[in-house]
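Below: protein 1.
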Amino acid sequence: MPQQNPRMPPPLAPRLAPLEEGDWDDVLKGVVATAGPLNVFATLGRHRELFASWLEFSSMLLLRGTLSARVRELAILRTARNSRCAYEWAHHVPTGREAGLTDDEIVALGGALDAHAWAPQDWAVVAAADELHNTGTLSDAVWTLLARRLDERGLIELVMLIGHHRMLAYALNTLRVQPDAAT
């Protein structure tokens, strides 16, 4: 069962420790009551105003978006791989399984794009994550493949989802947020 991706660097000591429970504000307490005491929340919660704004945006993409869970997790795991973000990878492998990704697919998300026989619609999502990572835009060919599967809201959301998780990976990697014990 794939958990650690070989592309991920070994964890380093955190630059900012997660907030202790006694220092949590009401927003962080509410999130923890729903999602659990994840290090991402207790670390980003050190900047209360930014955390509250980020939480709204992130929740839209993860909980209230138009993309299927499978598409969402394909994009997030591939972005975690491209960003070398061990935290996102460890957190989203179980979520990917819940969304229907097989262990073979999860392993393939950690490798070369064409090393796996992706279904065309899945290939387009993984290729989009790679192209955005490598070029900052999508080619007409990948856009056309995505547009066959997603409506215009889904197209916008996919690009925003990938960009959001790239930005989050920057923060998680730089702050050295440690993977949670449960993931």
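Below: protein 2.
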Amino acid sequence: MLPTLWYQDTLYPSEWMESEIRRILAGLHALDCGPGDTVAAMLRNSPQYVALTLACRRAGLYLASVNWHFKALEAEHILTDSSARALFVDADLLEQIAGGIPGHVAVVTVAGNAAAAPAHAQDWTAFGAGLPPMPARAGLVHSAITYTSGTTGKPKGVRRIPPAPGDFASAERFAQVMDIVYGRGDVAFLAAPIYHSAAMSYLGHFSNLGATLVLEPRFDAARTLALIEKHRITHAYLVPTMYQRLLALPPEARARHDISSLRQVASTGSPCPAPLKQAMIDWFGPIITEAYGSSEAGYTTFIDSADWQRHPGSAGRAMPDADVRILDEGGGALPAGEIGLIHVRQRALSDFTYVNRPEARAAIERDGLVTLGDMGYLDEEGFLYICDRKADMIISGGVNIYPAEIESVLHTMPGVADCAVFGIPDAEFGEALAAAVQPLPGAQVDAAAVQSFLRERIANYKVPRIVDIHQQLPREDTGKIFKRKLRDPYWQGQARAI
């Protein structure tokens, strides 16, 4: 089934979507793209992005999404690591990544041509036009390759291993999981960026249902309320940062629109502070849900408003087909109430691999379950509580940011001897970035220069908001930087540690 789209107050019926999908597939066939190959997208939310996503699923192609904030080095890694055959990119984004596009990658520009486009680039409106359609291929239930960073500083591509031919039972079980996490409805709202794995799965779920999808290029709190009323939206995907912006609206603006059509608001991707979640329940009603998951493991726990109010702070209980265990360092199971490493498996979801990184995939598995380094415990009723995340990962506005990636770039700055990047509390985004920098003896380094250096090389959202210059960074006896001593002063007096 195909969705009907509303985008910037324009209707894109399912017939439009079918026509675009066929044209995209004809163009990809002409590029000799076949099942199992990869194409890449660096696009803002748009009907074209939706069409490309659904075309790749139908053709058995993998789609590697590139965050549209990325710069040349970041984009080059994904395009090279994923072996992308083609790149679909918004024309105005080309300049910031032009130096990172490998010469063999076909380029298709969306929303017009650009001066930075390679000579062989094609325009979206002409791509595939007049060509014979691609032959029927076996589709992929999970066609997205999600790149998630790690402690090495280089993003790793998470790619699903296709289920065995004819294994329809797995797809049905996975659909049931998505029904719980996102709900089943006629009209769904999405303003989160499609390049994010959760937004991509939300898009896929409601596309499979043939629903009407109200897609926005970006989130605007007041407009969101107006759209809910106008389209009688039944389901929405919102993250805590969006909750903050909704609640910040004046009372008269919040009361202006009828939101009674909403039946479920799904939130995933970052922890939601208890007062913020309670405020949303008080306003929207007991329709706020939350799920714990990851690109690697999928969704493994779920909690609705009623259970959350009985178990505040919990990430929920294990979902159907999911296994959630708390293990000690030796792999032994821990009893209820004891904190350990969270290991999970969602058996309704096919297994995964890290692109070109089998050793990294093997390193996180134990007894058929995987861990991403999150610490937590289960209570007597099986509700999961997350106490800490990976040692260094930061979630800002629902986006995972890994300090090692930023530090690896900062180490190349002239005059920098060493550095540490860490998370500090932020009222709107949950966490913000701070950096501590130690200059080389005699070097003159200031905060503005550090931020400018990083802004030229990495996405702006990865540039630390605060940069402190230290003549000596605190270190452990081993010489490793003592990040906790840098981080803890910012978190004093806070009700949470992440």
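The longest strand covers residues 416-426.
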